[in-house]
Every structure is written in structure tokens, then in C-alpha cells.
Amino acid sequence: DQQVKQNSPSLSVQEGRISILNCDYTNSMFDYFLWYKKYPAEGPTFLISISSIKDKNEDGRFTVFLNKSAKHLSLHIVPSQPGDSAVYFCAASAVSNFGNEKLTFGTGTRLTIIP
Amino acid sequence: DGGITQSPKYLFRKEGQNVTLSCEQNLNHDAMYWYRQDPGQGLRLIYYSQIVNDFQKGDIAEGYSVSREKKESFPLTVTSAQKNPTAFYLCASSITAGGTNEKLFFGSGTQLSVL
Q: Which end of chain B is more exposed for a tag (fewer CB within 10 A), N or C?
């Protein structure tokens, strides 16, 4: 049962244009969402996060949008740069007795920026 | 220079053999995690530990074992009972497991292959 879904396995975008990566989730208890970026043979690195009390969070070229009613979030990268070529994972967690824990990851989207 | 160190980078396992993957962190984080990455399946949680001498099974714990004798170390043993061990293994840590909105910091991974 895939609770976090990234339905596009790959995406190609021209350099300088906007990249939009999408993520859907099914667990209504999720209240914290993160995006990670991963290069081949390396560990993922944290990119940006959003709490369910917000619908937008911005950090430089990266913006994450959250639509709770649709159980959907998206990552916008603008302008896209060649160094953005990587696999992007969406992740989510729910508050438990121990706080937020146990991130659930999506299957990833491979973003390729075309020079 | 704080971080998470995984070793070895590449590991080969013979049939029926147990192998141990090392994970060390000097971030003074309480919580540590092991994930497995397979192509097209994202990251799946194997085991996690919130505190020394305590750990819990994740979503795919069968065929694996862990120990947490020291705060800094969380080794993962892939036993002969794990029938499909070939994967990229990622160790991660977070400041605490009891905090809210925690993000994970990842090591650079170990690629395990079966001979």
C-alpha cells in the first residue's frame, strides 16, 4: 500500500524554465511533508519541508505547495538549472506519541534539466 | 566535520552468508534509521532506533537485524534469511525521535550485491 505516490517517474525540463514535481498521499494523518534530492550513489539531502498548517513554503528557487483537501503537494523549481538534475523524493510523516517519526517516502521522480 | 559515515561503499555477499553494514554518526543525534532503496520503489524503512539499547522494526525488517549499543553506531546485519538482499542501503539520523517536524540526515549509502 503506497501511501505516498509520485506518479511521474521522470521529467525533462529546459534550463531556465520551471520544474514542477508532484506528490499525492492517501493517509489523512500525515501532517509534515518534505522533499529530498538524491544524486546517484549518494544519500538523499534535505531540500525543503512544509507543515500542514501552511499551504506554501518558499526557499530561494524552491517552493512547496500543499493542498490538504486534495492530499497533494508539489515542488516548484524556478529557474531550473543543470545542477538540479537528480531524483527527487517526496516524504511524509504523522504525529505519534513520540512526535513526528518514520518518514514514508514516495518512489521518486528523476528530473533532467536540458541545457 | 559532523556527519553520517557508512561503510563499506560496496559490499558483496555470497549465498548463505551474513554481512554487516556499518553506520556511524557524530551529530549527537538520538534517533537512527536504516532504509533500503530498490529501483522504482523509493526508500523503505527496515529498522529504527530512538534511543540506545532500543530499536523497532520498520516495514521490511524480515531477514535483517540491528543493534544499538552506542549512541553513535547503528550497524545493520543482512542475514542469509534475506532472499533478495541486492539493494542500496541508506542509514539516517535525526536529532530526536520525540521531536516534531524532524528531518532526517542521510549517509552516502552502501551498495550490496549478491555473488
A: N
